[in-house]
Amino acid sequence: MLWWRPPPRGTIREPASSGGTLMKVAEILKSKGRSVETIEVDATIAEAIGRLNGPPQIGALVVCDEHEQRPIVGTLTERDIIRGLGKYGAKLLTMQVTNVMSRNVPVCSPEDSITRLMQQMTSSRYRHLPVVDHGELAGLVSIGDVVKARIADMELETGLLRDLYIARG
């Protein structure tokens, strides 16, 4: 007999984290920090590669334009650079980041649930999302950060279930 049925297609079950609340993006930022590497729109790809190679070594930069009303104009990832190399070859290194950066990147809020974040990353096919809090850049979360948070949440749940099972004998 099947004791658990998966939710109907297209619906998302929100897993409960400790305390009966949903795990939020803010919890990821709390554990990893709010430091975000940014780069200006007029920087070259060579400069961006230097920033990505760190320290610390990172997979994405948030591209900003201080002259815009909304300063976040996109992201530049390792994947964007690889695509650019395929399209432009070695001359890409002297080009501006705006030539290959991802534009109209979805953002998330510290109050978004991890489940919503996973949905957003999956549907938009972005592995790095800027976190915006009251119009200000508050962090950057990667798919790796999300996986790490979910594993920690699942380990906690497993431990609680094990303790409950042992207590009931």
Return the CATH topology.
Answer: CBS-domain
Structural class: alpha+beta
Radius of gyration: 19 Å
* Residue share in β-strands: 15-25%
CATH structural class: Alpha Beta
State the separation between the terminal residues, measured CA to CA.
23 Å
> What is the second-level CATH architecture?
Roll
CATH superfamily: CBS-domain
Q: Report the order of strands and helices.
A: HEHEEHHEEH
- The count of strands amounts to 5
Helicity level, as a percent range? 25-40%
Task: Provide a short characterization of the protein structure.
The protein is an alpha+beta fold and 169 residues long. It has helices spanning 25-32, 45-52, 78-88, 114-124, 143-168; strands spanning 38-40, 60-64, 72-77, 128-133, 136-142.
